[in-house]
Specification:
The structure is a single chain. This protein is of the alpha/beta class. The chain has one domain: Metal-dependent hydrolases (TIM Barrel), CATH 3.20.20.140. It is 35% helix and 19% strand. It contains 8 helices and 9 strands. The strands form 2 sheets. A 7-stranded parallel beta sheet has the order 1-2-3-4-5-6-7. It has a two-stranded antiparallel ribbon with strand order 8-9. The protein is globular, with a radius of gyration of 17 Å. The termini are close together. Bound molecules: zinc ion (ZN). Zinc ion (ZN) binds next to loops.
């Protein structure tokens, strides 16, 4: 089975501290044949009150990537991608940032923030008082994901069910997206129409994002483009649960998964 991890962060991301070379060594040690770096790029600052960068430092990203490629030689296939976060906050600025980018292999489009209807934007800090408030947050999040899907200038949608990771694993809720079937279906249909895929985020071995319910729905709607990624920010999680989640994809009706080369999907048998 071909093994590829398509969601990893290096020290180029503000929330990770490892050189790409260290991450690449860890991927090779974990048996991966291909690794895609997807460091964060956002049109806005993470914290309210902190101004967004005037321009993204693409040179730092490519220098780091070139160093990793030189260090690894032919031991693993390395790809340069980004995780493009929260584009709906400013599509014009996002497009301007992307217009300055070097040639990329892959773009994850994702949402990490609620709209400014909420006092706390960052989903990882969202601490609703009860289930009702939690579901209001999920509804707001899915509205942003739909806006992102309609825009469609990325390869795959990252971690579709991300709020569940924070609400269930951090805040002690036991929530699903079951009440939001219509919203999720509209998002998946929009992605498919726009030629975008989704990722199966292995969530470092915890509940996959999204889980089998939504993977099956995506497949039943005709969705074919799907990548697998660990979302590792440290070497110990690189390649985590990729093999197990390939099996899950087969159980959900997929016969192939994707890697990307110069923004074009490359299909591999499962
Ligand atoms: Zn993310």
């Amino acid at each position: 089975m071909y093994l590829a991890d398509y969601h990893t962060h290096s020290r180029i991301s503000p929330d990770a501290f490892m050189p790409m070379t260290v991450m690449a060594e860890a991927a090779a040690a974990a048996g991966m044949e291909e690794l895609c770096f997807t460091d964060h790029v956002e049109p806005i600052a993470w914290e309210p009150g902190r101004p967004a960068l005037e321009r993204y430092d693409w040179k730092a990203l490519t220098a780091e990537f070139d160093a990793a490629r030189a260090a690894m030689g032919g031991r693993i296939r390395l790809r340069l991608g980004i995780e493009l976060g929260d584009a709906p906050w400013d599509f014009a600025r996002t497009e301007q940032l992307l217009s300055q980018a070097p040639p990329l292999d892959f773009i994850i489009g994702s949402i990490h923030m609620l709209t400014d209807a909420f006092e706390i934007w960052d989903l990882s800090c969202f601490a609703p008082a009860d289930e009702r408030a939690a579901k209001a947050g999920i509804a707001d999040y899915l509205g942003q994901v739909l806006r992102l899907a309609r825009w469609g200038k990325f390869s795959v949608l990252g971690h579709l069910t991300l709020p569940l990771r924070y609400l269930n694993e951090k805040q002690g809720f036991h929530l699903t997206f079951d009440d939001f079937g219509a919203e999720v279906e509209e998002i998946l249909r929009t992605l498919i129409q726009n030629g975008c895929g989704i990722e199966l985020n292995t969530n470092r071995g915890s509940t996959p994002l999204p889980d089998a319910t939504w993977l099956r729905l995506y497949r039943s709607l005709g969705g074919e483009i799907i990548t697998l990624g660990s979302d590792a920010h440290t070497p110990d999680y690189v390649g985590c649960a990729i093999r197990e989640r390939q099996k899950l994809l087969r159980q959900c009706g997929f016969s192939r998964f994707c890697t990307f080369d110069a923004m074009q999907p490359v299909f591999h048998e499962l």
